[in-house]
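2024-03-11 09:14:02 INFO queue: dequeued item 2-polyprenyl-6-methoxyphenol hydroxylase-like FAD-dependent oxidoreductase, len=373
2024-03-11 09:14:02 INFO validating residues
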Amino acid sequence: MRKAIVVGGGIGGLSAAVGLHGIGWEVTVLERAPELTAAGAGISLWPNALRSLETLGIHLDRLREQASGGLHDRAGRRITRWDAEAFRRHHGRPLAAIHRADLIGALRDALPTGCVRTGTEVTGLDGLDADVIIAADGIHSGLRKQLWPQHPDPVYSGSTAFRAVTTLPRAVDLSTSWDDGAEIGVIPLHGGQVYWWAGYVAEAGIRHEDPKSYLRNRFGGWHEPIPELIDATVPETLLHHDLHLLGTPLPSYVRGRVALLGDAAHAMPPFLGQGGCQAIEDAVVLAAALSETEDVDAALKSYDEQRRPRSQAVVKASVQAGRIGPQLRNPLGVAVRNGVARLLPGALTARIGAGVSGWTPPVPRRPAPPRTR
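2024-03-11 09:14:37 INFO prediction written
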C-alpha cells in the first residue's frame, strides 16, 4: 500500500487525506496544534467546493444553504439583489455556509482512527518517509520556505478583518455591505448561529485594547443587524487577522515527491470567498491524479499542471475583486461602482463568478473491492 504524509490538519490537509484514503492509500496527517479544532468562524462553500466535497464522499449535516440576499451600502440601501434560485439554476448548486469546526469534524470523521496525529510539529522534510508528502501547512508554510528558500514571503493585502460567530434571537438574511474601504458580511449558519466579518483598509499590525468597543465606535452607525451582531458577540470569540496573500506566484506546486496544497501553494485574500474552496479543489485533483497512474512523478506533474493555472488565476481575481469592491476608497469611484451595480438585474448578478464556481472536479478512481469466494 502506498503511503502519504500530510503536513497540516486544516481544511485542505484533511480533504487531501480523505481523497487519498479513498483511493486506497495509507495516510498520516501531522498537525502541530494539540487538538484538531477550527477557529470560531464560518466558511462559505461555493458550488465548486460543494461538488468537490461530494466527490470526496463528504456529507455535511450542518450545512446551511443561503436564501436570497444582497449587497448594500452602510445605510442599508440595496446596491444589488442576489437571487438564490437563479444562482442555483445557473450553477447547479446553491451557495452554502458552515461553521469551520463542523467542516473539520466531518472531514476528520471520514478518516480512520489514528490517522491524524496532533501535537506533532514538522520543521523540515528530514524523517518524513512516504511515497508522497503533502505540504498543507498554511500561508506561512515552513516546507514551502525550505523547498523555495528564495521565493518572496506573503504580502499584506492592505486590509485587516475581524470575524466571529454569534447568535441572535431572530433570523437574519445573507448580506454584504460596503462603505469606502470597508466591508461587513453576514452569513446565517445552521442552528441559529450567524457568521459575520468586518474588513477594512488599514495599516498592518494595528491592534486594539478593547476590540469590541472599537467595532462599536467604527461600525455602530451601519444598518441593522450589524450593530446588533457586534453587541451580541462574546469579546473572547472575536478573531482579528491582517489579510495576507502569496503575491508572487510559485513556479511549481511540486518539488520531488512533495506537493504544496491550499494556502501553502496559493494563499489569497478572501474577497471572492474562495480560499478554502480552492484547497478542497486541490485535494480532489491530487487524489484523481494519483489514482490514474502508478507513476507518482507523472501524477504530481499532472496535479501541478491542472491546479497552478486555475488557482493562481483565482488569486488574481480575488485581488481585483478587493480593489473594485471593499478596498475602493475614492468617493467618486465608489459612487460610480454602486450606480453601475444597481443597474444589474438579479438574474445577471446570479451568474457572476461562474468561471470560478462552475468548475467540475475530476472523479478519483476507487480501488476495486477484494474478491470474495
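2024-03-11 09:14:37 INFO annotate: The longest helix spans residues 296-324.
2024-03-11 09:14:38 INFO item closed
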